[in-house]
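S1.2 Input.
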Amino acid sequence: MGAARGGLSVWMSTSLRTVRIGAVALLLVGALVALVLLRDDSEPAGDAVAPSLTEPNEPAGPPTPEIPFELFDGTSATFADFRGTPLVVNFWASWCPACVVELPEFQAVHERLGDEVTFLGFANADDRERAIALAEDTGVTYTLADDPNGEMFVEFGLFAMPSTVFVTADGIVHDTFGGQLDAEALSERIDELRAASG
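S1.3 Output.
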């Protein structure tokens, strides 16, 4: 009986300690939330100016990589060759089901925009013959390039397939998107890119 009481006493002591620690943690979280909500809002919202992360004429994103790459026609190119118009860079592969669905959507937007926006598609870690066959099957006519080891994919910091990079006319990465885009979503992002390109 004494052993049972001793065990019960230890259990109650441990339980009370756990409840106290939980209560203190809850109070600390509550105090933190209160501080955030009650921070000094002495300046009227209309007069507040958010600090700029960049200087007025500083680019918003990183420049495109300077690594040369091979086009499907066998010639070598760099991103500098594509400056002058906004650029849509799409990473795709024949082994990627979402890419197969997405490619005709990109082609449709490419045809609609013509020379206003340049499209460049990279076959990412893909077999060249399979990539060429897929491009032909889906009707892609814009410029295509090889990224056989995924080096360019990594340079852009991408991780999802397909992925699309939106580059301003002066070669600055404006935005990236990981996942499948349909024609409407792609067009919306291109409108933003064109606005950023001036």
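S1.4 Remarks. Residues 7-59 have pLDDT under 50 and may be disordered.
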